[in-house]
Write a structure and sequence with these properties.
Number of helices: 11
Number of strands: 10
Strand content: 15-25%
Shape: globular
Largest sheet: 10 strands, mixed
């Protein structure tokens, strides 16, 4: 009798382990870790993505904000998390392609994560104060060449994409500019609006409202093509600087070793979001363009950006503060 009971328990255990091994992911809530405080573009993109994934995966997807150390705290947290698909990172270009060039971090942007998808991309626009006598990029460059080092530009901080984009452009245009770093985009824009600083290379979400209200000029966008939100503003490339292009992006990454089944489920769910007008509209409303590419495409973009922004850091002379 005992041997029969023992055999029954053993059989149940085997069946249970088989069922567990074949259980479909996800079985419990998923967390997307955001490297910044609530309220910004990255947080908004994470919440829009979480809402969509909750619908598609039939499981709650929660957003958790972990700001600090320019995003390194969140990146390190996710890199060290269990590779089970339940902890994800809303990665941004600065943590993955810039920060490792500026300071020592406890993660590798390539080997510490599994790429899932770049959710959205965001080019930059060059905003010029209304009191500056330049109506286009050529006039701005001419003005800068007439006063080497006498024309200043604001940035969201040393080593930020706005800072490095302008460094790349200044080198390409052969001009010398004076860098004025701020603690974020809002104070930088405020001083450009007030005429204290001549220009600022900001993301579309920051620039569009002020540009459309006529509070300052936009002389160029940094994307490969003109953007739908500002169709009358030409690209830097079409104004004599062929091949010039900078942008930032927000992407979903997972800890290295996360099961391929989870990666595929996430990628497929996000890819289907491109067919949803409401999802696309929500992203466009905050000045970003939905992409939702494959893990392989994400990996290719990341490797290219690590090289590009490493070069930009050297050109700018930026150092971690």
């Amino acid at each position: 009798m005992r041997s029969k009971l023992k055999a029954s328990f053993l059989c149940l255990a085997v069946v249970g382990s088989v069922n567990a091994a074949h259980a479909e992911w996800p079985e419990r809530p998923i967390t997307i870790v955001v490297p910044f405080s609530a309220g910004g573009n990255t947080d908004s993109i994470a919440r829009i993505s979480a809402e969509w994934l909750t619908r598609k995966l039939k499981q709650s997807v929660i957003v958790e904000n972990k700001p600090g150390a320019n995003g390194a705290i969140a990146a390190e947290f996710v890199a060290a998390a269990n590779a089970d698909g339940y902890t994800l990172f809303m990665a941004t270009l600065p943590q993955m392609a810039i920060l490792p060039h500026l300071q020592k971090v406890k993660y590798d942007p390539v080997s510490s994560f599994e790429p899932v998808t770049i959710v959205a991309t965001n080019p930059f626009a060059l905003a010029v104060a209304s009191n500056i006598p330049a109506q286009n990029l050529a006039e701005l460059v001419k003005l800068a060449k007439a006063k080497p080092g006498g024309l200043a530009y604001a940035s969201a901080g040393t080593g930020s994409v706005s800072h490095l984009s302008m460094s790349l452009f200044a080198q390409r245009a052969g001009i010398e500019l004076n860098h004025v770093p701020y603690k974020g985009g809002s104070p930088a824009i405020s001083d450009v609006l007030g005429g204290q600083v001549p220009m600022y290379f900001g993301n579309l979400a920051e620039i569009i409202p002020q540009y459309k209200s006529g509070k300052f000029k936009a002389v160029a966008v940094s994307s490969d093509k003109r953007v739908s939100q500002m169709p009358d503003v030409p690209t830097i490339a079409e104004q004599g600087y062929a091949g010039f292009s900078t942008h930032t992006w927000n992407a979903i990454s997972a800890p290295a070793g996360t099961p391929k089944s989870a990666i595929s489920a996430l990628t497929n769910a996000m890819k289907s979001a491109l067919q949803d007008p409401a999802f696309v509209s929500k992203l466009n409303a905050i000045g970003v363009d939905p992409l939702c590419n494959t893990p392989e495409e994400f990996a290719t973009v990341l490797k290219k950006d690590i090289v590009q922004w490493g070069t930009a850091v050297k050109i700018s002379g930026a150092k971690a503060g």
